[in-house]
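#structure-requests
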Amino acid sequence: MESARDPRKRQISFRNEVRGIPSTTYGAFGLYAYPAKFIPQVVAYALDEYADPGMTVFDPFAGYGTTGVVAGIRGHDYELWDLNPLLEVLHKVATMKQPRQDVDRLITEMRYSCHEFIPDWPNRTYWFPEEFLPFLYRAWGFYHSLEDEEAKLLLTIPLLKVTRFFSLDDLYRQKLSRSPRSRKRLDRLLRGNWQERFYEKVRDEAYAVVRGIAEHHGLSPKPVRRTVRAGIDTLTLDLAKDMDILITSPPYLQAQEYIRHAKMDLFWLGYPQAVIRDLNKKEIPYRDVEPCEVQSDTYYRIRRQIEEEHLLGTFDAYFWGILGALTRLQRKISSYLFLVVGQATLRGRPVPIDDIFRQHFTALGWTHEITLVDTIVTRRMFFYDNNPATGLKDKRMRTESLVVLKKTIPHRVRMSCLHP
């Protein structure tokens, strides 16, 4: 068993170490509260400390696209993948040119638009009061009628955020869910001039996008080549070309249902129910995952302690899925792996994912440089004082670790996922 004071681990505050990015929500980084979005300073630190000029960057679980935004600022070509189609539109907004649109004119045009859009979502009446729906159909009808790409991008995040605010979704939870708190919010809206409130909030959010994009351009992003592949299955795809660096924050062990959270946004953006259902089935909790023999003593030690069959299934599926994908993809990575992982638990059992990942990849020939442990200050996750499943004090996601691994074996060698 590894020492509690492991010399290969070091505490760090990425916020304090990185210069040039004023805050975690500065510029494009704070435009949209994507679940479990890691802070830009993690990516900036990795690139500043380890990357050479001209190195290419790849993130196979890109989420909001933070890796790409930072890579662009630092002047690195990059490729982003994610199962969630939101990646594509959110990244377009984050990297758009400074908008020149008249926001007030756009809001006025939205007010008087006769266009209508009804999402392919049978459950929409469960999530929105009947009074709101015709109003939302017209607002989104205006959005979908826009031919000006800049105007459409400018309104995308404001409409997504305000539409969710006008829904029964509890905005403080990781999963799409109703609660007494969300019901109270809707009751307050219904007692006031909610139509005017809607337009005011969209206008305020649009101006926030304008400011955020201006701040982003103040960071001097470089004209780099970028590839964004959204709505794809990272667990089964191969990289078509070699990349220098892989940096990613994989889905969390106990929070893998990102499509479930995003489906409200996807429906309003025009994705049909069949597509969203298919994407949901590809998330780790709902799919059959090809077994991968994990090269980690810690993995097998913890696995032997799990008695509940369903938890054992969750544990195996997570590591088989994530490590299986990363084991395949690392064959095309020539220099560094940077793996950002949280400190998870299963029914109160600590699961040191960083140690499992480190052991697995060092067995494949990578050299472990260091693991940097940062305290999570804020995160778009839902915390309980007590875990509702166990009744125990909640201990989830208090820190996250950056596992730094350097390639030390010939790039031509084919590596496999084998039992130690």
